[in-house]
Amino acid sequence: MKKYFVFKLNLGPDIIDTYNDMEQLKIVVIPNNLKQIFQHTELSNSLKLTSEVEYKDFRKSELFDTFNTLSDQHEEEYLKIVSEFKETGGFGYTADYQKMNTEFGLLLNKIYKEFPYLKEVSETRDDDLTHDLEFKVGTGRKYVESNRKIKKYLRDNIQEQQSRNFNFYYESTTEYIYINSAHKDAINLANIIQEEINTNRGKNEIGEVSINPISEKVEVIIKQKSAIKEVSFHYVYPNGKKDVNNRNEAIKKLKAEKERVTYLTNSKNGFSPDDIQDIAEEKSKKGYLSDVLHKGRSIINWIQKEVLKEFE
What we know:
Elements: E1 2-10, H1 13-18, H2 22-37, E2 39-42, E3 47-53, H3 63-88, H4 95-114, H5 116-122, H6 141-156, E4 164-171, E5 176-179, H7 183-199, E6 210-213, E7 215-220, E8 230-236, H8 241-245, H9 249-254, E9 258-264, H10 273-284, E10 289-294, E11 297-298, E12 300-304, E13 306-309
Antiparallel strand pairs: 1-5, 1-6, 1-13, 2-3, 3-4, 4-5, 7-12, 8-9, 8-10, 10-11
Helix pairs in contact: 3-4, 3-6, 4-5, 5-7
């Protein structure tokens, strides 16, 4: 038996509404579509799937020099605005900065499309890279974070990575995906699986999906000593009629694929971290929670569900 980290495959509302029979969707439709995208082997208790990850070295790309130049310029201008805010309590975005910010955002999207693994890198959490950024100076902050994460990744991975194949398993009764790897790598591989399915969404019957970790528990981590007066929970659309029916009428009527719920308080004591954790854990154990944010930053640490299982 091997240890596997557990993830939940979630579909969009349009797909769920198309099928009245959820069992048919889970047991027939999803596996058939996964088999069209990945190499596969039928097992008695699951579907074994194989994905090939092709790593292209960003440093050899024509985009690399442009990225280095524009990212340095963009970060310098962003930090000037942060400095202005800290000195005066106010700030403004010049037309030149807004143009540069848009240009850098478009460049990052182009990079992510050609080098998907860098998108995964940009979505990892690294508080050491954000200490001098300012939540209230929001325009461009995320791009500065992404540029720092990419540069750190390139520094830490001097040698070009080789292409690799990896196996994962889909269990139709639960819609769970199982990945045997170190935790950080398993998160990256789940993102790769999600990206590969979504790249083929126009050709399959399951559309765009989200793949979220199933957690044993989540820990709320907030370094600030002042009261928490604002917190946002980010959810994905749930699979299954019962879970859908338990959501509010707005998300069902709009058929929204994602939901963000922000809570505010003027209470002197603010929100209790324990209460935030309890709310987060309820959905994270089902794989419907994507993040919890405070002042635009993730404040949860996932303790992901890991199981011993025999597939072969």
